[in-house]
Amino acid sequence: MRAAVEAQAIESVAAGREWSLWMRQIRAILRIEVKKNFWGKRALLIYLLAAIPVLLTFLLTFVDPKASADIRRNWTSAQEVFAMLIYRGLILQTIVYFGCAWIFMNLFRGEVVDRSLHYYFLCSLRREVLVAGKYISGLVASTVLFTLTTAGSLFFLYYARGYQASMNYLFDGPGLKQCLAYVGITILACVGYGAVFMVIGLFFRNPIIPALLAYGWEWINYLLPPLLKKISIIHYLHSLSPIPVSEGPLATVVDPTPAWISIPSMIVFTAAVLILASVRIRRMEIRYGNE
Amino acid sequence: MNDQWIIFENVSKFYGEILGVNRVNLTIAPGITSLVGPNGSGKTTLMNLMTGLIQPTRGRMSVLGVSPSNPQELFRKVGYCGQFDSFPKGMTGYEFVKSFLAVHGLSPKEAEEKTWRAIERVDLVEAAHRKVAAYSKGMRQRIRLAQSIAHEPVVMILDEPLNGLDPMARAETIRLFRQLAQGGQLLIISSHILHEVDKMSDRVVLINNGYILAEGGVLGVREEKLEEHPMQIMIRCDRPQEFASRVFASDSVVEATLHQDKQGLFIKTRNADAFYQLLNRVVVENGINVDSVSPVDDDLNAVYHYLIGSNGGSS
To answer: B6-223: what fold?
Structure first.
């Protein structure tokens, strides 16, 4: 009995050591990858992409006096336009989508192109830990950039409304909750799209085509029948939108999935995709010559 | 025994329909073992299999008792310096070595110490804080070597490690390999530079078209081929014709050819020991003055030529 207890204690100490080793290794991967994601040549495109919505709302606020006046005059309509066109159409379905595609597909595919992935494979490192480290590094880069994009766009929207009115709406009205919801949706989009694009980058030599196919699927989501609608990421993200918006006359009307289902569903989906990525990377071979 | 050796059991690797290596049964013991063969013979495939960078189509392997499919365990014991001359972008030599030591799970302090130790061993201290992109080919080769030895593995797998090095650096690197082998490490080296392989190896594995042709000590492999290719010995003496006539009667001599300058002769024998005894007797009995006796084809170059060269391979 005592021997069994001791054996259990030794096992738990060993498991603890393993976890602490994996955490150290993930931190080491993050140090390499985050630097690469923010300062590498490939990051330039992401910065440009991330700046577009901010620049657009800046121009609407400061350059077009008519637009600015419209925002002040009809705040409800301005919010709807922001939610539908700027946030949903531009930020979520274009900037975050393609930004995540670029960041996450390059985590492995980019290293295969650069012929430097083997350095990770030659370390005393479980490949699943490599997947986790790389994914988190992509998540850090995408969430920092795209939450700044979201926050920046919201800032100029609120700026156009005027300081006092915006402050009142933010802190005495639903403004802060709405802003946090937008940021939360952006983070959740990075979590979900990131996992999908990382796995696409692992499975396909030319990941652009599957990424475009997935893009098409996400865009026609509003036309799909209710069951198919739910086989997408965008449906769950839309369900969390703080400002309900119409999807147009052709859209199939489906009740939004409540947050308590949407958020855990996205997390479970992401976990499943990451497990798939881990299975794939365990079998992955380094054959740069054939890439 | 399993946990001290590298073992291949009936290993085959196909790239689609193209053969990488076929039915390899090989046991590699501690010391320096060289993989020798022409380009495309399967040397790199064998090394990539040992390190899990590719997976076998058939068969199994173990490196000191660890399967290559378990990188966490494997690379505590193994370091691999491959031929890929590419690096993560924007890193200095120091950052390159240290970053991947940290990925091994070493603490920052430990990683720092081991980084400097490895960089010192390859003599790159002065260039350590320069970007790898600005290094010469030889320096890049050395920093990759440093990266692969930095975590102090017991097994070193080195694919063409002398490529791109100048003669001084080559000599230094060979000295480093010897030091590592004397320290009990198991080194597997692939190289095209046969005379250098010959000098540093304890054993050779000759490979061509994906098949292992021979393995063992150079002399051992050479002796295996005596029937097909008798050993050639050159004797410099004052009366080569008389010497030839005296020894030719012996069973141990297959052929005797006079040297063009008439100052010596070439003897072909399938039994070198018996021939040397005969040589002593003939010299003493006939008062022939012998200046030198030297085997012409008992080195790796000859073995390579006999086993691979005739098949159209190149060194």
So the answer is: Rossmann fold (3.40.50)
